[in-house]
Design goal:
single chain, alpha+beta, Immunoglobulin-like, five-stranded mixed sheet
């Protein structure tokens, strides 16, 4: 009986450690799509972009899709790009869009690499999108 109680406590501690260590993962810079694969046949999707706290409101940024600026020639700043600074200093933008009108539907079918880069070309957030 005592061994079973110890096992339960150990499992509970491991679960608590996993939950605590995983809780900050949503604060990491990145680009995510939900769902992660778009068919562009009229469904809605949500794109979430998080930038690190080191980014300033007036920093010039660009979105790269497969290494190319997308849309072509577009440079923006977090302050004008729909991002909201969070209590931890990171920047968050979340938007729900409808296909097929979304610019993502202009991409060829396949898996695409997405990056947000700063003026020096350094990647500050990245993700991927599968276009059916």
């Amino acid at each position: 009986m005592a061994v079973a109680g110890v096992v339960v406590v150990v499992v509970a501690v491991i679960a608590a450690v996993v939950l605590v260590s995983g809780s900050g993962s949503s604060d990491r810079p990145g680009i995510t799509y939900d769902p992660s694969s778009l068919s562009c046949t009229g469904e809605s999707f949500t794109v979430t972009m998080r930038l690190p706290a080191t980014v300033g409101a007036a920093d010039d940024l660009a979105m790269l899709v497969d290494g190319q600026v997308f849309p072509a020639g577009t440079v923006w700043t977090p302050g004008q790009g729909g991002f909201v600074v969070q209590s931890n200093g990171t920047w968050l933008m979340r938007a729900t869009q409808q296909t097929p009108a979304a610019s993502e539907c202009l991409l060829a079918p396949g898996t695409h690499t997405l990056e947000i880069v700063d003026a020096s070309g350094a990647t500050i957030a990245q993700g991927s999108l599968a276009r059916q």
